[in-house]
């Protein structure tokens, strides 16, 4: 089974969704054979390359009055998922370069290395207050995930991957992805939002049955979405 996860490093729900999906995968029979890849998505391509306090940028978008309640709810949800959100110190910054490194991890090192780097970048952004656009810090994160230092340095010094990542983001929008995380199973069934692990487990089982029944028609069962979709994703 192949699962493509469209997400952005700057999306807290993507962090929650990653953890919840991994919990479901850990108890799914045959989960070790599920190939998971992360696809790039930018919630706000206009975010500057120079970092600024995330709190200020979110206050501009959602209003300062709503921000504390939003962050408190996410902190509670994050705690349940094993995530420590530190919104007070988080930095808003353009994520295109980080997506480039994630693409390098996938194409040259494989899905496991990409997943490790994805987790490292999410922690850097939301827990450690790091600048995930800084080339030196990105290199360190990539090395921690198993990538070769010299390859990463050379890659970041070039334009490698820029056009490809931008094309993938455009393709995601063209196929109808408007919020993240969005989980696409076998290129056919999609679930949007950071669903509960129990929901993801049910979806995995449904997709497995759908794969067995698939005959080129649309008769296979559609994965069910739970109540978390309403506020379990970050929309454009």
Automatic annotation (TrEMBL):
Residues 224-236 have a biased composition (Low complexity). CDD domains: DsbA_FrnE. InterPro entries: DSBA-like_thioredoxin_dom, Thioredoxin-like_sf. It holds the Pfam family DSBA. One of its GO terms (molecular function) is oxidoreductase activity. Transmembrane segments: none annotated. PANTHER family: GLUTATHIONE S-TRANSFERASE KAPPA, THIOREDOXIN SUPERFAMILY PROTEIN. This is DSBA-like thioredoxin domain-containing protein. It comes from Embleya scabrispora. The lineage of its organism: Bacteria, Bacillati, Actinomycetota, Actinomycetes, Kitasatosporales.
């Amino acid at each position: 089974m192949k699962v493509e996860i469209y997400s952005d490093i700057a999306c807290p729900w993507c962090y929650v969704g990653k953890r919840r999906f991994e919990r479901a995968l850990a108890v799914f029979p045959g989960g070790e054979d599920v190939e998971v890849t992360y696809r790039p998505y930018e919630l706000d391509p206009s975010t500057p390359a120079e970092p600024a306090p995330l709190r200020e940028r979110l206050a501009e978008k959602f209003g300062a009055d709503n921000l504390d309640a939003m962050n408190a709810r996410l902190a509670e949800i994050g705690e349940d998922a094993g995530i420590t959100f530190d919104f007070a110190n988080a930095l808003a910054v353009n994520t295109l370069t980080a997506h480039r490194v994630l693409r390098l991890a996938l194409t040259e090192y494989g899905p496991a290395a990409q997943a490790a780097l994805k987790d490292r970048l999410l922690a850097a952004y939301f827990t450690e207050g790091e600048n995930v656009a800084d080339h030196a810090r990105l290199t360190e994160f990539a090395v921690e995930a198993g990538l070769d230092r010299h390859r990463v340095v050379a890659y970041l010094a070039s334009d490698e991957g820029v056009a490809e990542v931008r094309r993938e983001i455009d393709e995601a929008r063209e196929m109808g992805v408007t919020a993240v995380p969005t989980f696409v199973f076998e290129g056919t069934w999609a679930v949007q939002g950071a669903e509960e692990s129990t929901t993801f487990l049910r979806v995995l089982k449904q997709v497995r049955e759908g794969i067995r029944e698939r005959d080129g028609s649309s008769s296979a069962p559609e994965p069910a979405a739970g109540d978390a979709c309403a506020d379990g994703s970050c929309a454009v």
